[in-house]
């Protein structure tokens, strides 16, 4: 049985005067513990697909199942991390990372201990009583990841989580998130415009065509890169050749569009 299955997903946005098809007949099978990325031209439906998989949008056609069960809205099995950290500025870091637990009535001693251990694992020991404004952008994003992982979701959705960060911070955070997710064997889906980021972090990359989005090509990342943390993967000799291959495919889609 496939862990996460996306079957024949199509989606159309309707207004009073028009209908716009964002996605057309997309099917994916994602294994437990796998890290995949969605690449494609702007407007190809990457975020729409992510939202459908997360159960936030009901597709026009098709279905998404997790461990054989259909994903519904407000599923605790799905964690979502966005570009912005959306930390509450008036709450301490400790209070922020426990928000999901509180909302799901899971605020128990063992869970609280678990979130604090996660914070330490992310290199943030000692910031529990601080407020978001006292932390850097990269630290805030790590806090946001801890908050997302606190409820122990089975699948993590990452919607361009590094795009607002400077390049050096982005590289450090890629390594932090990659190592954390691998250590917990978490399944993750990343939406990004950054080819290098997708190669460095993923097991597979799905390249979507221009609207309506369809799976145009699938790239399997070589083991030589997959077994390295993102920073070292970027410096491997295979990285640049794969980057150029994907770049050319993506450029051809932009021209077609």
From TrEMBL:
GO terms for molecular function: ATP binding; ATP hydrolysis activity. The lineage of its organism: Bacteria, Bacillati, Bacillota, Bacilli, Bacillales. Transmembrane segments: none annotated. InterPro entries: AAA+_ATPase (IPR003593), ABC_transporter-like_ATP-bd (IPR003439), ABC_transporter-like_CS (IPR017871), ABC_transporter_ATP-bind (IPR050166), P-loop_NTPase (IPR027417). It comes from the Bacteria. SUPFAM superfamilies: P-loop containing nucleoside triphosphate hydrolases. The keyword ATP-binding applies. Residues 4-235 form the ABC transporter domain. The keyword Glycoprotein does not apply. This is ABC transporter ATP-binding protein. PROSITE patterns: ABC_TRANSPORTER_1, ABC_TRANSPORTER_2. SMART domains: AAA. Keywords: ATP-binding, Nucleotide-binding, Transport. Coiled coil: none annotated.
């Amino acid at each position: 049985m496939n862990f996460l299955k996306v079957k024949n997903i199509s989606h159309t946005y309707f207004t009073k005067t028009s209908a716009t098809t964002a996605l057309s007949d997309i099917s994916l099978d994602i294994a437990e513990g796998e890290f995949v990325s969605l690449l494609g031209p702007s407007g190809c439906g990457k975020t729409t697909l992510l939202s459908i998989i997360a159960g936030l949008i009901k597709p026009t056609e098709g279905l998404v199942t997790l461990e054989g069960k259909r994903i519904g809205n407000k599923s605790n099995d799905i964690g979502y991390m966005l570009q912005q950290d959306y930390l509450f500025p008036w709450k301490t870091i400790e209070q922020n990372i426990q928000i999901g637990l509180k909302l799901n009535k899971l605020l128990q001693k063992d869970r609280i201990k678990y979130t604090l251990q996660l914070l330490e694992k992310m290199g943030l020991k000692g910031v529990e009583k601080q407020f978001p404004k006292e932390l850097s952008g990269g630290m805030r994003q790590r806090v946001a990841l801890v908050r997302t992982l606190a409820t122990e979701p089975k699948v993590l959705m990452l919607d361009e989580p590094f795009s607002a960060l400077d390049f050096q911070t982005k590289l450090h955070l890629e390594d932090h998130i990659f190592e954390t997710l691998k250590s917990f064997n978490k399944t993750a889906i990343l939406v990004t415009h950054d080819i290098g980021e997708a190669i460095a972090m993923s097991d597979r990359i799905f390249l979507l065509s221009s609207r309506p989005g369809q799976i145009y090509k699938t790239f399997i990342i070589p083991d030589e890169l997959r077994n390295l943390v993102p920073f070292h993967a970027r410096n491997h000799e295979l990285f640049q050749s794969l980057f150029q291959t994907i770049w050319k495919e993506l450029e051809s889609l932009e021209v077609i569009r």
